[in-house]
Amino acid sequence: MTRGPDLRQRKKRADSGRVSWPLFFSHIALPDENNCMEWVGPAGEATLGFKYGRHGARTAHRMAYEYWHGPIPHGLVIDHVYAWGCRSTLCCAPDHLEAVTQAENVARGHKGALFTHCQSGHEMTSANTYVRKDGRGRQCRRCKADRERIRQRALKEAG
After folding, report:
1. Does Hydrolase appear among the keywords (predicted)?
2. For residues 74 and 101, what is the distance between their CA atoms, to the nearest angstrom?
């Protein structure tokens, strides 16, 4: 039975802090018909490719962005730009990745793009849409105001 390198040696290499770009790019497929360059290495539960290194796991698309565009500006996240036909969260193509705010990323997202009306049927326009402060979701302003009125009425009646 042939054994691979000792686990301690693997960890030592992973902890060296140096990114082996040839190894990294060996896990990225050649461009497809949409010019997507998909990560074919290990993937997490959210179908984002990841790479282990000295600072823990890092997503492949963030590493690819940093390789081609430089450091990610503080407060921004990397968006897979659906407008250019990219539907894959595994894509690492340089022109399919853009640094945006979390709110913009949510608004652009596939589910967000399909979400044109709230559950009550109100249109989700920029004037009628509240983006959460943490940037992780959108709400209909009219429904939010209705819920707040109901909550305030219940508080008033209770006490």
Report:
1. yes
2. 10
For 83-132, write each residue's pLDDT tens digit.
566 777 888 898 889 999 888 887 776 565 557 778 788 888 888 888 87
3-state SS assignment for residue 69: helix
80 vs 60: CA distance, rounded Å: 12
* Amino acid (1-letter code) at residue 14: A
Among 44, 40, 42, which Cα is nearest to 27's?
40
The residue among 136 and 121 whose pLDDT is bigger is: 121
pLDDT at 99: 92
Q: Where are the beta strands (DSSP E) in 18-121?
A: 50-53, 56-59, 77-80, 97-100
Under 8 Å between Cβ of 136 and 156:
no
**Measured CA angle at 101 (ends 40, 38), to 5 deg:** 10
* pLDDT for res 24: 83
Residue-level pLDDT at 114: 59
Give the residue with greater pLDDT, 63 vs 9.
63
Which two tokens mark 12?
């030592």
Q: How far apart are CA 154 and CA 138, in angstroms?
A: 25
Gap between the Cα atoms of 137 and 132, Å rounded: 6
